[in-house]
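Usage

Read records sequentially. Each one opens with the input sequence:
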Amino acid sequence: MRRPRGFTLIEVLVALAVVAIALAAGARAAGALTDNAERLQQVTLAQWCADNQLVNLRLARTLPGIGDVDFNCEQLGRSFAGKLVTRPTPNPNMRRIDAVVSDEAGRPLLTLSTVMGRP
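and closes with the structure output:
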């Protein structure tokens, strides 16, 4: 008596189900990597904007006044809105400055802080 060789329909369906689950997991992981790369690019561009604003303050060689100042920045064709928040410190010759950069929708992307002293 000979048994036929090959796979049964159940075995083929189980194999197809395993492959489908593996492909779905791979597609989800690829989507997460794409989202992470986009987020990293946005945060990097926002950091460039914040760095530029803080360097401009240092190059002005004056102690900024206390208060908030809005700014706009464009990097690689993307627009970012930002705010320089200047606050006093216990030492009257120094100021704490926070550069807060947001995306087009107004969601904060990055806050970069520094302390500046009187030149």
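Summary fields computed downstream for this record:
- Strands lie at 67-75, 78-88, 94-102, 108-117.
- The chain has a mean pLDDT of 92.
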